[in-house]
Amino acid sequence: MTDDRIMTATAPAQATNPPAASGGFIAAFVTALFGVAVATLTPVSVTLAIRIKQIDPDNAAAGLSLVLGVAAIVALLSGPFFGQLSDRTTSRWGMRRPWLVGGLAVGLAGLCVLATAASIPVLLVGWCVTQIGFSALNAALAALLIDQVPDFQRGKVSGLVGMCQALGVVTGVFLVQSVGTSIALMFLVPGALAAAAVIVLAAAVRDRRLDPADRGRYDIGAFFRSFWVNPIQHRGFAWAWLGRFLMITGFAILQTYQVYYLSDQLGVETVRIPTLVLQSTLVLTATVVVSSIGCGWLSDRLRRRKAFVLGSAGVYGMAMIVVATAGTFGAFLIGMVIGGLALGAYLAVDLALVAQVLPDGGATAAKDLGVFNIANAVPQLVAPAIAPIFLAIGTGSGGNYTALFIGAAVFSLLGALAIQPIRGVR
Question: Which CATH class is domain 18-210?
Fold first, then answer.
């Protein structure tokens, strides 16, 4: 169904009493996000590592780092670029729908390349194509939150969004186990799930349409501006970006070094590590889901964003201190429970807070949210780069995981402090 009304790019900012988003739209929107999470996180978590190990077992770690690192840079650049194009789209099908469908098509093509790849270079190309397609799709999805969901519902919807990533990882692992040894199905089944969910959303959404007269001129300067938001003119957005970057850096350290922490710090036998990682992932997922839903609803109820974001980042920092000082797997799980509750609250409410400080009232929401997503992507590159500094403190052998997770706590606590200067948000 297509809404035939012509709406200007500044429509979200101008609406004084916007109607509530329907339950049907929210369900389709969250389901699409969940499907995309399954399709994109399953390769990162499981299938790329398996396939690279099959192709080049002697250099698997280096091969995985190459594929993930290059594709992360591609995704970093793609998001803001496609977001700006979405904000300028004057198609009769709307501003976001073409990018939902087009991004899905490119992303699925990339997954098909991965499913048939027999060398590391082909895997690299396939994963980069996948990242480009899903970056365009994600830019449109992020903009739909601003276009379609009024502020008084964004906490609840952001809470549902926050749990998609955690559930996506668990669902992806389950699907991989379900398809047996077929490497092709390990890539294609998650992609099929995403395709079904996104197609339903694209068919159902009443998309905004942009009048060509309001589009303005596009030049090379506009291209480079798609990766930039002036932090002086838009200080609230800049502080929110910095807070997200610091918080996600703290989480990326835990996510990246959990396996080595269990083996080197706690002395867990290699054969037991997959089981313990699954247990900790399930604990983290369960607490993230519960906290996301509860805190998103409560944030809308109280009309408060800032306190939830600041408090949850601080609590996550304390959780990392628990992890840093844990001497047993049980104590480590306690840290994961606290961290999951904090992370769920943070992911639920932070996006709703960001929506309130978007430049120009959200007129260029897709582009600006693409810039904001850089704060999610860069920590995946930063964490492995800075970790050796903490690991080498006082040991020289690179095994000080206590210092590493105290470092993660410091990043998260600084992320909490970065929220404090934001004005105009309760």
Answer: mainly alpha
